[in-house]
Amino acid sequence: MKTSSKAVSEIRRGVIVFVVLAVLTGIEYYVGVHEAPSVILWAIALLKAAVVIQFYMHLMRVFRSQEEH
Questions:
Q1: DSSP string, 16-60
Q2: Does the pLDDT at position 1 exceed 70?
Q3: Contact status, residue 54 vs residue 20, Cβ threshold 8 Å
Q4: Cα four-point dihedral sign 58, 59, 62, 68
Q5: CB 46 within 8 A of CB 24
């Protein structure tokens, strides 16, 4: 059974998002342990939230026209 190229690209994108979130979590841990200003932790948290909203919640699909669905 062959996997379509769209499925492969979706899996690749999912892995990239996973790696990005893992790296940001590692940075967040490092910053938290070294008692950096909390504004840095907030910035990282907002960046992670933006990645989750974009990828997992498919927010941009809401703003597409009906023909594009």
A1: HHHHHHHHHHHHHHHHHHTT--HHHHHHHHHHHHHHHHHHHS-GG
A2: no
A3: no
A4: negative
A5: no
Please count the CA atoms within 13 angstroms of the CA of 15 that sit on its side-chain side: 6
Q: What is the dihedral of CA 13, 16, 17, 21, to 10 degrees?
A: 180
Query: Residues 28-58: pLDDT tens digits?
Result: 999 999 988 999 999 999 999 999 988 888 7
Q: What is the 8-class DSSP label of residue 3?
A: P
Q: Which residue has tokens 């994108």?
A: 13
Angstrom distance (rounded) from CA 42 to CA 15: 24
- Whole-prediction pTM: 0.73
